[in-house]
Every structure is written in C-alpha cells, then in structure tokens.
Amino acid sequence: VGLSNSGRDDIANAPYEERYKRAASILDNYPLIDGHNDLAWQFRTLMNDTVYGDGIPDLAANWSTVHTDIPRLREGKVGAQFWANFVHCNSSYKDALRQTLDQMDVIKKFVARYPDFQWVTTAQ
After folding, report:
1. Is residue 104 within 8 Å of 85, Cβ to Cβ?
2. Can you tell me the distance from the alpha carbon of 60 to that of 39, in angstroms, rounded to the nearest whole number?
3. DSSP structural state of residue 81
C-alpha cells in the first residue's frame, strides 16, 4: 500500500511496525480494490479449468503456487476485485470465444464454491 506522507517525515521515517499498523488502519476503513486478478487464467493453465475434484487446490487454504487465495485476500484487506478474463492473442480466430466462456465459467464456480466471493454485475 502506498501512502502519501504529505511532507510528514514522522511517517516516512517511522519503524516498519508503525507504518504497517497505519496502513492496516487505513485499509480497515477503506478496503483495497484489486483491479486485475487473473486467478481464472491460473486455473486454466494449472488445473485445466477445473475448480472441483481431487487434487484441486482449495482457495480457502494457502495455495502458494499462485498469488491469490482467500487467506491472503483477507490478510491484504482486499474488499473487492475485478476478475480478469485473459486470453492469448494467438487464440484470435481460433478458440478465443471458448476460452473466454471457459474462464467466465471458472469465475462463476469460484463464486458458487466460496462464500467469500460474490458475482455482481452493477455498482449497486
């Protein structure tokens, strides 16, 4: 988290623990919005678009292979995120639509499997 110190050297020179506590306090009041999360792509490449089944990582536990799991989202005080639906350019005129729909399906399965996630389509 980047914090403006507005010319205040007391924060810039404060010990790490104090800066961490200040950042955590700010995030308690103003949750972080993750503007790009490509976890669906990770499930595509690592788990063949599979969210359920034997050997599939549980996002409620720490999955160190990727950057996102629920414990780290909570620890980072992420209040909302935008799921990215990434498709390689080389899939144009081939299977880009199928890959897009597959990833949308994976994202909807995340929402169905984990109560921490919600599918929203409006700002309301």
Report:
1. yes
2. 14
3. E
Is 0.85 surpassed by the pTM of this model? no
Query: Of 45, 29, 40, which is closest to residue 81 (Cα–Cα)?
Result: 40
Q: Token pair 């409620």 is at which residue?
A: 60
Distance (Å, whole) CA 62 – CA 24: 21
Q: Three-state SS across 18-57?
A: HHHHHHHHHHHHCCEEEEEECHHHHHHHHHCCCCCCCCCC
Q: Phi then psi for 40, rounded to 5 degrees?
A: -60, -40
pLDDT, tens digit, 9 for 90 and up, residues 86-124: 888 999 899 999 999 999 999 999 999 999 998 888 877
Main-chain dihedrals φ then ψ at residue 79, nearest 5 degrees: -95, -25
